[in-house]
Design a protein that fits this description.
It contains 3 helices and 14 strands. The protein has 169 residues and is α+β, with helices and mostly antiparallel strands. The strands form 3 sheets. It has an 8-stranded antiparallel sheet, with no helix packed on it. A 3-stranded antiparallel sheet has the order 1-14-12, with no helix packed on it. It has a 3-stranded antiparallel sheet with strand order 4-10-8. The longest helix has 17 residues. It is globular, with a radius of gyration of 17 Å.
């Protein structure tokens, strides 16, 4: 193979990787919740970008992709991530900011690199329920407009890491 053909093949491979969809994994174990059924209007109306939710069956939240933690809320109910050019917000529960961090524990810090499936935080589902809040784990691609499409690909019962959102470049 000549140098020109080698460089062309390398460029084609890079271009193909850029056009390959990225699959985001479920951030929790539980039942899939489509965007229009997320119990928070800011998310269900797409104001924060395309999203989905998981009605959790256990109190653990996982990284949906390899990436870097960009922010962690002081109240530990939300984590921001950057991955493959995406800005991902994982928001635990509805109005759980009112709990002031009670019932939440972080397992990561801002600036930390994570792998898909790494434990990000834990939550006490009983405390969230006792405080009168839905525990839905919401995952939004907040810069959805930067991509050709972001679409849900899941339904039913999910294991952590199961494909839930396809992001097309």
């Amino acid at each position: 193979m000549g140098l020109f053909n080698f460089l062309k093949a390398e460029k084609d491979a890079d271009s193909k990787a850029e056009n390959t969809p990225v699959m985001l994994g479920a951030p929790a174990k539980g039942m899939f919740v489509p965007m229009d059924q997320v119990p928070d209007e800011v998310f269900s109306q797409g104001i924060m970008g395309v999203c989905c939710g998981v009605d959790p069956s256990e109190g653990k939240v996982y990284a949906p992709a390899d990436g870097r933690i960009s922010q962690l809320a002081d109240t530990l109910h939300a984590v921001g991530m950057e991955a493959f050019g995406m800005e991902i917000l994982i928001h635990v529960g509805v109005d759980t900011v009112e709990m002031g961090g009670d019932g939440f524990s972080n397992k990561v810090t801002a600036g930390q690199n994570v792998k898909k499936g790494d434990l990000l935080l834990t939550m006490d589902l009983d405390k969230i329920s006792a405080a009168g809040h839905a525990a839905t784990v919401i995952m939004a691609v907040t810069n959805s407009d930067d991509f050709a499409s972001v679409e849900a690909v899941a339904a039913g019962e999910l294991s952590p890491g199961a494909d839930v959102l396809r992001v097309n470049r």
